[in-house]
Every structure is written in C-alpha cells, then in structure tokens.
Amino acid sequence: MPNSLMISISGIRGVVGETLLPQDVLRFSLAFARVVGMGRIVIGRDNRASGEWISRLVTAALLSAGNDVVDIGIAPTPTVEIVTKKLGATGGVIITASHNSAEWNALKFVGKNGIFLNESELGQLLSFAASSSFQYAGFDETGTLEKREDGVDMHIENILSLPYLELDAIRRRRFRVVYDPNGGAGVMLIPKLLKKLGCEVILVNDRITGFFYHPPEPLPQNLVGVSDAVRVSDADIGFATDPDADRLAVIDEAGKPIGEELTLPLCARYILSKKRGAYVVNVSSSLVNRLVAEEFDVPFYQTKVGELNVTDKMVECSAVIGGEGNGGVILPDSHLGRDAGVGIALILALLAERNCPISEQVNKLPEFHTVKLKLPMIENLPSAVENVIQTLLPDNINKMDGWKLEFQDRWVQIRASNTEPIVRIYAEAPTNEEAKQMANRVREILREGMEI
Fold first, then answer.
1. pTM higher than 0.90 for the full model?
2. Chain segment 106-121, per-residue pLDDT in tens
3. Catalytic sites, residue numbers
4. Gap between the Cα atoms of 91 and 106, Å rounded
C-alpha cells in the first residue's frame, strides 16, 4: 500500500481511510474552487462504496466556497466532461479511481472546457491545498445544489449527433451485443446508448453494489464472463469498460477478447476513412497505430502517458482522432476526453458500413501482440533499468516517458505508473509468445536488481 497520496495529471488518488482521508477531500475541493473561480461546478462519481461520502464532502466544500453545484450522480467520467462543457460550467469534479481496485478512490478535476486541468493549473491547486489558502462565502453567498438526471441523455445526444455516423445503417444491422460494466458507472450510459443504436443488449455484471465483480482493468484475463456470454448467446460482439467507462475493451463474435490495444486502431480506421488529419497516441501504445496512420498517409504523433498529454498534442496539431493503448478513444468532434461510448458507436458504424464481423476487421490490422506486467515500485529504478539496457542492448532508447527500448519489430517499456505505486512493463512483438518472453525477461532482470 502507498504511504501517501498519488498526485499527477491523472488526479489525486489514495486508499480510502489510509491515504485518502476526509480532510484531503475537503482541502483539494476548496483548492479547486480557488483555481476555477466562482460559478457552477458539475460533479459525478463511479460506483465505489466510498463515492457517496466523498461526493457529499466535495459538494459541501464547493458550496462553502460560494460555488453552485450540479450533481449528476453516478455517471461515467466522459459524461461529466461533456455536461461541464454543455452547461458552460466553471469546472467539474469526477470522483473515481478508474481502473484501481475498490479500496482506492480519487478526485479528478476538469476546467470549463471539460478537459483535465493542465500542469500549471494543477500546480496552482497543489499550492492552494498545501497552504490552506482557501476562500469561503458568507452566510448569504453560499452556493446552491442542483441534482440532475439528464447527464447521460446529454452524452448520448452528443454521440448520436456525430455527422459521419450512419445511424440507420447501424440500426438495420440489429447487432446482438453483450456488455460488461463490472458494476461500474458505464451501466448508466452504455445499455441506453446501445438501445438507441437499435441493438439487442445482453448485460453481465451489471448490478451496482459499490464493489466490482472482477479486477477493474478491462484486460483479457478479467473478461471471462463477458467472453462466455458472447459465445452462449451467439452475439455479434461484446464490450467491457472500466469502472468510469473511459476505457473500452472489445470481444469478437467467437468470444475472444481482441485486446484493448486494438480498440483505438479500429476506431481510427473508420474515422480516417471519413476525414483526414493528425493521429495522436501515447508512447505506450501499439505499433499498429503508426501503421494505421501510414495506411491513410496522415501525420502521426506520440506523447507521454496521460490523457491530458494526448489532448494537449491533439489541440496543438488539430488531430482528428487520438487516444491511449488502454482502450481510451479520444474524438475531438465529440469532446477532448477518452470515451468508451464514442468507441462503441464508431466500431458499430465500422461493422455496419463494411457489413462484416468484428473478427474480419481485426484481421485487417497488422498483427502485433502486447503483454502488460507490473512490479512493486523499485527504489532506484534508473539503476535497475540500466541493467536491463546492458542486457538487452536495444537499437534505440526512447526516454519520452520512462524507458522504451526499441528494436526493429518490437519494443519494451519500463515506467513508473501515474496512478499506482508500481512499475509498469509493457512489451509488444509480432507474436504473443515473443512479447511474453520479452516482458518476463525484463521483469526477471528488474527483480534481480531489487534483490542486490
């Protein structure tokens, strides 16, 4: 367990009752009110058991600072982002630890544009929080609380209004879809969206209890239930999301998880066939993304890991699509945030237009396999990584984010996580066995370094 809060562009995260305490929620919420100034602030949360009391503390802090609060309840992260922008709110607070396990929770902060705070704004927030430099409203200037239940409707309207979605074509296919929200906030959005798209919807793990049915990352090994349901129900496709529904995993018609790394390339092949423009991903994402960009002859850019890093670059180069290899699809025509609902709509549009099963579209992508491992945080990580470099002798070392050791047709990356006290090891190669061997070899060398 960490002994302090994890603070990054991915939010203020901690283990509830250990490192994330009520006083932390209050001080960071009050600091956020200072950063964004007076006005309405939208709040929403995922399904975690701790979300209710955290939401109440956030609300109390913001009201005491004189801000009005619009509470949309349990809602996906992208829903809060869209509602914040749609209502012209001053900012938004999302209470979610995303893919972290149930004992974690977090505060994520967005500005009036519905985009996460940038590094300068985050620096301000941390400064205010550390110094307790807060501003409070008088008794006659306290903010007001409004509860709304139409946030998801705004989100669905946003998706269905995308100009290149052939809604009639999607509805004519009458896709049979299995969806696994893992008891998370996606259950508020995705089934309703799928029905609007004319799909027959089969749900698994859909009851909200405050806990998860399986580990919250939508990785293949965690998707046994939805995979089985696809096979048993003879479905066309399966989808799974993380607890706040900004990451999307896809399961083919045979019940095989295709890997979250392929979510974005599938969406990109559809978008880039409709409009050309720059394509942006983080440096941990699959080589498939670069090859898709080359297929459509569009500019391709990489960034450090973190949604904000990707969206900043997308704004800079006027990208038409971008995202991250964790199943995070960012479509500027919708909004500048990862959005599983957008990813689902684009993939169904692709299948409807090409009139084929999802496996056929996957087979059209270049074949690479990604393996993702993790280790407890290593005290002297640079020294441990140097042992890996001296052992593997890569063709190139990319230090944009951690250490990405690049070879002719494969790579392995070692980096400290932004969201957990761990070291992440990602490896990609032409076959799953080769990727697994490379990742395991790196883990073995790092472990040897820890034991010295």
1. yes
2. 999 999 999 999 889 9
3. 98
4. 16
